[in-house]
Amino acid sequence: MKKSERRSGGAQEHRVLVIDDEPDIRELLELTLAKMGLGVDSAGSIAEAKRRLREARYQLCLTDMRLPDGEGLDLVRHIAGLAGDIPVAVITAHGSAENAVAALKAGAFDYVSKPVGLEQLRALVKSALSLPELGAAAQEGQPLLGTSAALRQVRDTIAKLARTQAPVHICGESGSGKELAARQIHALGARRERSFVPVNCGAIPDNLMESEFFGYRKGAFTGAQEDRGGFFQAASGGTLFLDEVAELPLPMQVKLLRAIQEKRVRKVGATQEEPVDVRLISATHQDLAARVEARAFRQDLYYRLNVIELEMPPLRECREDIAVIAAAILERLRAQSGQPAARLSPAALAELQGYDFPGNIRELENILERATALSGQEEIKPEDLRLQPAVSHEGAEGALEGPLPAYLDRVEREAIMSALAKTGFNRTAAAKLLGVTFRALRYRMQRLGIREPE
């Protein structure tokens, strides 16, 4: 009688397939999984595993990387090619970061390093078994509105990314919905019941980076009057979203790399590391590969964060979606204000569809919020939108008045003031609209003498 047949449980019992050619490791994994109330089958080779997969349905496969008749990656790819949606976790050699990244790129749900930590294994198994059914996940609400080919492709990719624990790097212009995409990956995945913790890496002072990310012990520095967790602890079991990750200083990049590789962090002032279980999603509007070339971003950290890349399209490439996105924004504004919903006149909608939106969806939100406030009518007309005219480069030679530095300062001041006006002098939103960090905007405002109105 097989071990899985001796387990208690009915037809709904979760079954796990363990593939490893070392009997001792197989037995350890079988005992651990059995204590979790799971049915377990095992195989010592890829060929035997494929036979098991044909004969029974499993909710999880756990495979070693090296097997007598091939690589664990071969099995990952085989299972990914099947019609089902079985998550596969890979056991890698300790410190083999390349194998772990290769497994995640091949479609593995997650990985665990040898020697296998049982607590980490239990957390991985619970996470994999809590994945929603593929069809059920697709039925959940889609906050990324639109029917354009670009948006459909993004939604399809998000649905796939939600079924792995691979680090994802989201790139795209400022205001294109990178955080919205990250939240959707979290909402459709195994960690949806736990916290989603967004962090703006460009808004944290350098001297507070380590304590903000990893926490600190009481007495670690002046003012540390009690133990406190950081972002990693707050996101335990959930997702940590690192926005504007390109702004991390190099010393912090080293510490973050170790936390990702070891899945452990040490609080400031502590002597021992503690395990952490978070999924990392990062984003930036900058070209991260170019930052690596410029030696402003570590290459090893880049490869660990950019395991899978998701590119968000700019709004100007999804013009057919502007109507439905604008309608959703106006409905949200109606719900917030309690006033009757405004609607776009056909001429106003046509003007929006012809606009290039350098600030993307965030700019569209600001335009509609301003138009709703200024119009006072149920219908928004083109003059209520107050769109910025396209910058013409014709006759640029005659446009230069005075010395070049003064001219550039004048152009920079106008751009900053325009962004601040669009965002109601919200400097964080203005910085994103301009495509710079909050820190850089603050410096430029100080240099140009721009102050918040009293």
Summarize the structure.
The protein has 454 residues and is α/β, with parallel strands linked by helices. Helix content is 46%, strand content 13%.
Task: Reconstruct the topology from this structure.
Elements: H1 3-6, E1 15-19, H2 23-35, E2 39-43, H3 46-55, E3 60-64, E4 66-67, E5 70-71, H4 72-80, E6 88-92, H5 97-106, E7 110-113, H6 118-129, H7 134-139, H8 149-161, E8 168-171, H9 178-187, E9 196-200, H10 209-214, H11 231-234, E10 239-243, H12 250-262, E11 264-265, E12 274-275, E13 279-284, H13 288-293, H14 299-305, E14 308-311, H15 322-337, E15 343-344, H16 346-353, H17 360-375, E16 379-380, H18 382-385, H19 396-399, H20 404-422, H21 427-434, H22 438-448
Parallel strand pairs: 1-2, 1-3, 3-6, 6-7, 8-13, 8-14, 9-10, 10-13, 15-16
Antiparallel strand pairs: 4-5, 11-12
CATH architecture of the largest domain: 3-Layer(aba) Sandwich
Largest sheet data: 5 strands, parallel
CATH superfamily descriptor of the largest domain: P-loop containing nucleotide triphosphate hydrolases
Query: What oligomeric state best describes the polypeptide chains here?
Result: single chain
Question: What is the total tally of β strands?
Answer: 16
| Mean of pLDDT | 85
Relative strand content: 5-15%
- Rounded to an integer, what's the Rg over CA atoms? 26 Å
What is the highest CATH level, the class of the largest domain? Alpha Beta
For this structure, the CATH topology of the largest domain is Rossmann fold
Strand order of the largest sheet: 2-1-3-6-7
User: How many distinct domains?
Assistant: 4
- State the secondary-structure class: alpha/beta
Helicity range? 40-55%
Distance between the termini: 80 Å
Global outline: globular
Q: What is the number of helical segments per DSSP (H or I, 4+ residues)? A: 22
Q: Return residue spans where pLDDT drops below 50 for at least 5 consecutive residues.
A: 1-11, 391-398
